[in-house]
Amino acid sequence: MSFMVTATGIEYHFTGPDSVTDQGRHFRIEDIAHHLAQLNRFTGACKRPYSVAEHSLLCSEIAQRGKASAHVQLAALMHDAHEAYTADLSSPAKRAVNQRSVAAGGTNAWTVFETEHEKALRLHFRISTVFTSYRLLLRSIDLRALATERRDLTAWRDLTHSGWEVLGDGEPLAHDRHEPLDWVSLDTPEREAMTWKDWRQAFLDRFAQLMLSMQANRRGYVQLQPAAKCDGKLPQYVAAAAPMPFVNVKP
C-alpha cells in the first residue's frame, strides 16, 4: 500500500485495495489548488518561482481570449490538475524514465502511472469528454504557454541552446512552430510579488467562476468576459450578467 496525505488531511492511495475506491482517491479542488500553487514548473529552473497553478491560469486565459467555451476554459485550467498528486516531472525527465523502463523490458512507466491518475481526476470532475473533443486545441494552448514561459522565465537562448522539438524550433513553416504570446509578460514585478497563497486563491476563484459560468449558460446568461487587457498583472474576470446566486461549486 502506498498513499499520500493531502493538504486537507485525506489519504490519497496510489496502490492497494483503497486505490480503486472513491474514498481512496477522493479529489478535492481545495487540495488541487493548494498543491499546484506550491509545485514549480521546469524543476525550479526559472527566474522566479513559477507554479503549475500559475501556468494553469495562463492556459485558461489563453482559451478565454480565443473565445473558447467555459467547458474548454475549465479543461485548460485543469489539464495538469493530476500533478497535484503525481507531482510535475519535467518532459525531458518523463522521456528518460520511459526510455529506461522500456530498455529494462517494461512499459512506458511514467506515462502509464500518470495517465491512470489523469483519467481518474477528469472522470471525477466530468471533463473527460472535453479533453477528447478538444485535444488538439488544448495541446496547442499548453504549448503556447510553454513558449511564453521559456521566453520570459528561463535561461534558454536560441543562439546558445538546442532547439525544443516540442515547440517546433527550426521548422520552416510558421504554422508548425508554437510562438510566445505577445499580450502578456510573465516576468513582471506584479507577478513576482504574488505569493503561493495568492495563486492558490486565484486558481480556486477561476474554478468557481467557470463553474458558475457553465451553470449560467444553461440558464441563458452570457459568458464571463475579461475585465481588461492583460498588462502582466493577474487578469480579473467579471460576469457580463446580473450577479449569480451562490451555488456549491464542487462537482
Describe this structure in words.
- By secondary structure, the protein is mainly α.
- It has a domain at 28-84 and 128-238: Hypothetical protein af1432.
- The protein is 47% helix and 4% strand.
- The protein has ten helices and four strands.
- The strands form two sheets. Strands 1-2 form a two-stranded antiparallel sheet. It has a two-stranded antiparallel ribbon with strand order 3-4.
- The longest helix has 23 residues, at 196-218.
Compact overview of the structure:
With 251 residues, the protein is mostly helical. It contains ten helices and four strands, in the order ββααααααααααββ.
Helix and strand arrangement:
Layout: E1 3-5, E2 11-13, H1 29-37, H2 52-65, H3 70-78, H4 83-86, H5 91-103, H6 109-124, H7 128-133, H8 135-153, H9 189-193, H10 196-218, E3 225-226, E4 237-238
Antiparallel strand pairs: 1-2, 3-4
